[in-house]
Specification:
147 residues, alpha+beta, Alpha-Beta Plaits, 4-stranded antiparallel beta sheet
Length: 147
């Protein structure tokens, strides 16, 4: 019961922030979303194989998504001073908004048709890359800019 009262009190305290006038007074404006995936790459031949895949297939996929207006930008960032347990690379994709479920399904079908691959083929290809890379983190961020 104490938890419910605390939750209700917390909700009541946020209600004034949800009013339109409060939103206009807030000093930060919501911007684009950024999807960031942390990748650990095996040393040696794995590094070259993954770099080749990023420079060809991944880039091709990202360019297609950009041409469709699904994303606004993308990039590859190396973790130059990586500490133990941190990713070697960050794959970053920027987009204006999150698609709803119906739009995401439409995009998935369009991508499958464009790439001429099935979901099974895509999963197998991803599994093959697991021999030399591991996705160790994933974050979805939203940019906020001062007004």
């Amino acid at each position: 019961m104490k938890t419910i009262r605390f939750a209700l009190a917390a909700m009541a305290m946020t209600l004034p922030l949800a009013t339109p006038s409060a939103a206009q007074d807030y000093p930060l404006a919501a911007g684009e979303y950024v999807q960031m995936n942390g990748i650990d790459v095996e040393d040696g031949e794995g590094t070259l194989k993954y770099a080749q895949w990023l420079a060809t297939e991944w880039k091709r996929f990202q360019e297609h998504a950009k041409s469709q207006g699904w994303i606004t930008d993308y990039g590859i960032y190396a973790n130059v001073n990586a500490r133990a347990g941190e990713p070697d690379l960050f794959l970053v994709t920027t987009f204006a908004s999150l698609p709803d479920a119906a739009e995401q399904e439409r995009r998935d079908r369009a991508f499958d048709a464009w790439s001429k691959t099935t979901v099974q083929q895509q999963a197998a290809a991803s599994g093959n890359r697991a021999a030399y890379r591991t996705v160790v983190s994933s974050m979805l961020l939203q940019e906020y800019k001062p007004r």
